[in-house]
Specification:
By secondary structure, this protein is low in regular secondary structure. The protein has a single domain, classed as Pectate Lyase C-like. Helix content is 0%, strand content 7%. The protein starts with 69 loop residues before the first strand and ends in a 12-residue tail after the last strand.
Length: 124
């Protein structure tokens, strides 16, 4: 699936474990309830995609575009989110324990009941 383009695709409940989705586009898709453990989503375009109830533990989401995503009841334990863009995302009841978040952007994002990360406002 590397560099593939999926528009408004629905992978509801699919098992994508260890798939290579780097640089793929899932814009406006629905990945709710997927099992995506250790998937490579690096540099993927996941803008406005739903991840409700998904297990994305151990995923590589580095430099991915996750702006406008919805994540509710998600396990993102040990995920690599370095450099990912979560601008304007809605994230609720999500576990980021052990996740790498260096350089992650969260401008305008709404986070509630998030576990495992401490965010601080950028100065300036």
């Amino acid at each position: 699936f590397e560099e593939k383009i999926f528009f408004k695709v629905k992978f509801l409940g699919a098992d994508l474990t260890s798939a290579n989705m780097s640089k793929a586009s899932f814009k406006d898709g629905d990945l709710s309830q997927v099992v995506a453990v250790s998937v490579n989503f690096s540099a993927a375009d996941l803008q406005n995609t739903g991840f409700n109830g998904a297990n994305i533990s151990g995923c590589n989401l580095s430099t991915a575009n996750l702006s406008g995503v919805t994540m509710s009841n998600v396990s993102a334990v040990n995920a690599n989110l370095s450099g990912a863009d979560f601008s304007w995302a809605f994230i609720d009841n999500t576990d980021f324990t052990g996740a790498k978040i260096t350089g992650t952007r969260m401008r305008g994002a709404k986070l509630t009941a998030v576990k495992g990360i401490k965010l601080k406002k950028k100065e300036g």
